[in-house]
């Protein structure tokens, strides 16, 4: 599996992502051909090389042909604006591949949602200022298209790095990191530095959040290319380059996702009610729910309810915990969940269907019959559950 790892220790912005991909071997002409189908006012991409901390990095600037001045720093701009709906229509009407359209729209929707929440307005009213909109469209679509053209199937990145200070933007003077960046990066590991300036922008953080998975170390891979993308500004204390490592992952059957572990402690509920609550939570989480016996204050024996879920399930989990249990609160942590990819194959046994989960490890298949299916057959036919397991595995092996 072709994999890309982005090192965010010097920050990340939309233009830096494209620059790093060009440095790693992205075909510049193919990129321009795809972007030319967007139907936005004519623009140029100026390409050059910048030196940062004794290293050379690719550098691009997006310029509208009818503008006399260069675009401002990153995506904080003034002037006319485009609404999110208009930008999505521009992307959908282009001739770029559907998967690129889908990813670019997801990034813009995350940006729009973050801006709407931090400014307290409906997402329909969120707009991107004209110069910034052009920059953002080219940066986001160009980044998604570049990854597609390079054949990147999996993206990883490390901790977001933030600078300090303030920046002038369309909404006035904003602290660094700006509110939208904070909102987008919530739930991810972040490092706050003493670097004076905006290292991570809303566009850069949104692209990483949508397209990739955060990891603490570089994934195991055979390195093919390394690219360096320079940002518009040079800051003291950081390399000033976004590094991307492109390679072939040797763990093709592993997949990673960001999950939330929700926990609450209970010491005053009956086991019957607690059991029913856990079943409701399991149906909502669609991943896993369990309890752990714990010693609480005053030496009371209690139960810790643990729920593993995706972020979009948190509001539903919260409702059940407050409505169905005696808890006054809960806590959660964010984890990277790595699991082996699986295939599911169905067989027929005793006239009933059994789903078989198949894991491929080092070229060898490991087969696991679905418990509920085997239990159903054992109950219906009044035979041993263990015998059903053995027969199901034997049937697959034959």
Please work out how many helical segments DSSP would assign.
11
Helicity level, as a percent range? 25-40%
What is the straight-line distance between the termini? Answer: 31 Å
Largest beta sheet: strand ordering: 11-6-1-13-12
Integer average pLDDT = 87
Shape type: globular
What features would you describe in this structure?
With 398 residues, the protein is α+β, with helices and mostly antiparallel strands. The protein folds into 3 domains: 2-252, no CATH class; 256-340, Alpha-Beta Plaits (2-Layer Sandwich); 343-397, no CATH class. Helix content is 34%, strand content 35%. It has 11 helices and 20 strands. It has helices spanning 14-23, 28-35, 84-92, 98-119, 130-149, 179-185, 202-211, 271-285, 314-324, 371-381, 385-397; strands at 2-7, 43-52, 55-64, 81-83, 127-129, 154-157, 160-164, 166-169, 172-175, 190-196, 213-214, 221-230, 241-249, 254-266, 288-295, 301-309, 331-340, 343-349, 352-361, 364-369. The strands form 7 sheets. It has a 5-stranded mixed β-sheet. It has a 4-stranded antiparallel β-sheet with strand order 15-16-14-17. Strand 2 and strand 3 (55-64) form a beta hairpin. Helix 3 runs antiparallel to helix 4 (98-119). The radius of gyration is 25 Å and the shape is globular. The chain starts with a strand and ends with a helix. Mean pLDDT is 87; it is low at 68-74.
């Amino acid at each position: 599996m072709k994999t890309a790892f982005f090192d965010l220790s010097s920050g990340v912005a939309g233009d830096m992502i494209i620059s790093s991909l060009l440095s790693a071997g992205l075909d510049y002409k193919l990129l321009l051909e795809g972007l030319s189908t967007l139907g936005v006012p004519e623009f140029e991409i100026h390409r050059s090389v910048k030196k940062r901390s004794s290293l050379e990095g690719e550098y691009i600037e997006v310029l509208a042909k009818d503008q006399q001045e260069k675009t401002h720093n990153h995506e904080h701009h003034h002037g006319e604006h485009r609404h999110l709906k208009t930008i999505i229509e521009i992307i959908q009407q282009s001739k770029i591949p559907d998967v690129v359209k889908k990813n670019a729209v997801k990034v813009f929707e995350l940006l729009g949602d973050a801006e709407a929440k931090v400014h307290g307005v409906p997402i329909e009213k969120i707009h991107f200022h004209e110069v910034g909109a052009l920059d953002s469209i080219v940066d986001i679509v160009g980044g998604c298209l570049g990854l597609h053209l390079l054949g990147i199937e999996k993206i990883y990145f490390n901790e977001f790095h933030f600078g300090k200070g303030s920046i002038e933007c369309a909404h006035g003077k904003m602290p660094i990191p700006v509110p939208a960046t904070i909102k987008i990066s919530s739930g991810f590991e972040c490092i706050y530095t003493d670097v004076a300036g905006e290292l991570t922008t809303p566009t850069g953080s949104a692209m990483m959040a949508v397209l990739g998975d955060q990891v603490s170390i570089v994934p195991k891979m055979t390195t093919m290319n390394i690219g360096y993308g320079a940002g518009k500004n040079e800051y003291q204390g950081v390399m000033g380059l976004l590094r991307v490592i492109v390679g072939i992952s040797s763990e093709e059957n592993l997949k990673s996702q960001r999950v939330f572990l929700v926990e609450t402690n209970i010491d005053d509920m009956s086991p019957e009610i607690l059991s029913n609550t856990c079943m409701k939570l399991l149906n909502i989480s669609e991943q896993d729910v369990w309890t752990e016996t714990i010693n609480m204050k005053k030496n009371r024996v209690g139960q810790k309810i643990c729920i593993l879920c995706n972020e979009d399930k948190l509001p539903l989990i919260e409702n059940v915990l407050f409505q169905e249990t005696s808890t006054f609160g809960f806590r959660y942590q964010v984890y990277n969940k790595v699991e082996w990819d699986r295939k599911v194959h169905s067989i027929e046994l005793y006239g009933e269907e059994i789903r078989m989960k198949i894991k491929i490890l080092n070229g060898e298949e490991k087969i696991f019959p679905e418990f509920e299916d085997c239990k159903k057959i054992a109950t219906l036919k009044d035979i041993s559950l263990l015998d059903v397991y053995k027969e199901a595995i034997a049937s697959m092996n034959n």
